[in-house]
């Protein structure tokens, strides 16, 4: 994926030029797999947009519309599921507390495309999540958070599950864990992944241990 293609894509997003963004996305797809395009093209462009916003050089509306455009593009190309399901632990994915949904959507799609079946809980708070984990008898929970206050809520979740004697492997991912490499341990998670590909590799490893 060339840097100039990513740069052009990012500029199209920032100028809210949906047609151009779509054309560049299709061009990237002509030489790379959908997952590669998502992880090596869409994600870096959005991360750069996040940095601009952090510096104060762009408006929140530009960040928001870029996220929405990318959600639509990603939705078109990520396959819904693979018919060959593997033997696997009961698992789910959730966004805890915040409203950044794109990362979860990608991880969910990539997990399913890689042969895993998992519940998609959408967005939940801690109390609701504890009840669902117990009711669904989960063995593995994937949590996506993009804000620090949401990341810290994982500690409350772990404490509430411990109090009910629930043994659950928690895999976390999202911006706060990328900013602070020790945070996943501090909030009581079992592992942290930087990407959707990491999620697949880690759950595959756990599934092997559990069978
Ligand atoms: C787009 C965006 C938004 C959009 C979200 C649109 C949507 N539908 O999702 C909008 C404009 C709504 C938004 C709003 C806000 N945002 Co915002 N946003 C971003 C931005 C620029 C990109 C996020 C994104 O979509 N990235 C692309 C996706 C694909 O990447 P990702 O989510 O990181 O997921 C990848 C990996 O992290 C990983 N992954 C993700 N989840 C998981 C889970 C598991 C288990 C695994 C293994 C891996 C994994 O795999 C994914 C694919 O590679 C980030 C910047 C950043 N550095 O992340 C800020 C950012 C997350 N936002 C931030 C903030 C502060 C806000 C607001 C509070 C702003 C405001 N003042 O109103 C609000 C809060 C909304 C809320 N209550 O949740 C901060 C959070 C800071 C912090 N430490 O808490 C960030 C980090 C920007 C910053 N540097 O300040 N935001």
UniProtKB/TrEMBL annotation:
Keywords carried by this UniProt record: Cobalt, Metal-binding
Chain ranges of the B12-binding domain: 87-211
Species for this entry: Candidatus Methylobacter oryzae
Name this protein carries in UniProt: Cobalamin-binding protein
Transmembrane domains' residue ranges: none
Location of the B12-binding N-terminal domain: 1-89
InterPro entries (alphabetical): Cbl-bd_cap, Cobalamin-bd, Cobalamin-bd_sf, Met_Synthase/Corrinoid, Meth_synthase_dom
